[in-house]
Amino acid sequence: MKNILVVGGAGYIGSHTVKMLASRGYNPVVYDNLSKGHRQAVEGLPFEEGDLGDKTRLKEVFQQYQIEAVMHFAAFIEVGESVKEPSKYYHNNVASVLNLLDAMQESGVKYFVFSSTAATFGEPVQPQINESHPQQPINPYGNTKLMVEKMLEDFDRAYGLKSVALRYFNASGADDSGCIGESHTPETHLIPLVLQAAAGKRPSIKVFGSDYPTPDGTCVRDYVHVNDLARAHILALEKMEKENKSLRYNLGSGSGFSVAELIQEAKAVTGVDFKVEYEARRAGDPAVLVADPSKAQAELGWKPMYNLKQIITTAWNWEKNRRF
Ligand SMILES: NC(=O)c1ccc[n+]([C@@H]2O[C@H](COP(=O)([O-])OP(=O)(O)OC[C@H]3O[C@@H](n4cnc5c(N)ncnc54)[C@H](O)[C@@H]3O)[C@@H](O)[C@H]2O)c1
Which of 13, 198, 212, 324 has its CA 20 to 30 A from that of 299? Predict the structure, then answer.
């Protein structure tokens, strides 16, 4: 049985991946400082409370569990906050990751799976973003993630540390069991905000910009189910270990949906005609962000299994009965 340290495993995407790892015969060990995550999201599994910045503690955990690979989800994730407080982001998303990589080096752990993001690409220069698209982030959050990708390239060249960087587009949905789902404070992601409006927990949903050069004027995004992302992590880990090489993949469905289309689908799924308010554009939101996932499909055999309706349905089941 393979012992995988899942750093940030008590968070949204981490907890879904932990659940899937356990169901596939791996032994995930969650390492999280619970600054944003939830202990209930990983009940019944090995859990070590600790911070990324604590190298001594990380090395103890590597040794205690004989860790073979690390999946790294821990980061601060709010673009707007990263503009106002970049120092916080460079510390947690870059400096602490360097600390983790050093701890891995000193403990002889050679495989690393990294949660990167579409935000490393910045403004798209082509309709669908593939792995050769230029990486020019337009905010500190995207910069921090690109810096780690660069660090990983250097660590491979110098020390032979193999890594996968998975650049997710819009992670969304919840586990079919309804036991775990998305829970961020504050919540900034569109689907949970829309569903909170449907559940009457918010008076309305605000749409920023209706004059973009898109068919209905609202922004177009690529939504990918969290369990599809979890599956891609396991496939990529296995390929990296088997071939002993570093890999990079863009993970999205390849289809874009506008904010207005998503709201329409959410009204159909929930049966609630919640209030929608249109406001001015927000700075830094590209009109369209859609992945070209063909490399992941060809090399990993990965194809998203959940469509937009299923994404919203699972997220709605979670929103109605959430435990945290
Ligand atoms: N949610 C998305 O749509 C999305 C899209 C692209 C990339 N990502 C990336 O995926 C990863 C996971 O995102 P998420 O939505 O699950 O976030 P999340 O906030 O739900 O989870 C992050 C987890 O990391 C933990 N953590 C943060 N800093 C830590 C530290 N210093 N030490 C130990 N634990 C720490 C938090 O407590 C939390 O449990 C992030 O790296 C994010 O940048 C997310």
Answer: 13
Contact 18, 45 (CB under 8 A): yes
- Find the 35 Cα to ligand 1 centroid distance in Å: 10
277: nearest Cα among 293, 290, 263 = 263
Q: What is the CB neighbour count within 10 angstroms for residue 215?
A: 11
- pLDDT 10s digits, 56-70: 999 999 999 999 999
**pLDDT tens track for 99-150:** 999 999 999 999 999 999 999 999 999 999 999 999 999 999 999 999 999 9
Q: How far is residue 232's CA from residue 251's CA, in Å, rounded to a whole number?
A: 8
Mutate to test the pocket of ligand 1, among 16, 101, 115 (most ligand atoms within 8 A of CB): 115
Ligand 1 lined by 115 (C-beta under 6 Å):
yes
Residue for token pair 């008076």: 203
- What is residue 1's predicted lDDT score, i.e. its pLDDT? 65
- The domains located in the chain, with CATH, are 3-172+223-251 (3.40.50.720), 190-221+254-320 (3.90.25.10)
Is-contact 52 112, C-beta < 8 A? no
